[in-house]
Amino acid sequence: MTMEALPQVCFLNRRVNPPTMPAPEGRKGYNRVSLHRDPDLEVAAARWIAGGESSLHGHGDSAACYCVISGVIEEERYFPHPDGSYHYERVRLEAGQRSDLPAGAFHKVKALTDSVTLHYYMPAPCDATEAVPAETLKLLIEAKARSLPQKLGERIHERPAAA
Ligand SMILES: [Fe+2]
Question: Helices marked H in the chain — which ranges?
């Protein structure tokens, strides 16, 4: 299977019941279960409680994709550029929508409602929630900061003129 085949897999997975998973325990806002793992592919499901969030993390050399099976997810994601910088965006994903992260990307996921997500990693990652190296974290903070003035400017621009 290739990453290109995943949209169809996501579609098929929407037609089956979400996996039966125990609710998250303690202060952790989600519970993750690996459903399949071989050297080329890992498939995992996660059950989230409203307000549950992941750490800011990467997936090593693996490309990742996840589908929202139920609920609503907010994701902050950082895409690597060839020049070494990152592009930041924040998105809201509802049931049936997906997110694709190339190798080297980072993200932070938060459940806005109780949610179930299905995750794919190619190849199977050594660590599916790999911590962000300190030197990279600085670049991610810069990428997020760069996106803010533009959004503030858009809001100011959209404000109706005073009468
Ligand atoms: Fe992730």
Answer: 6-14, 134-158
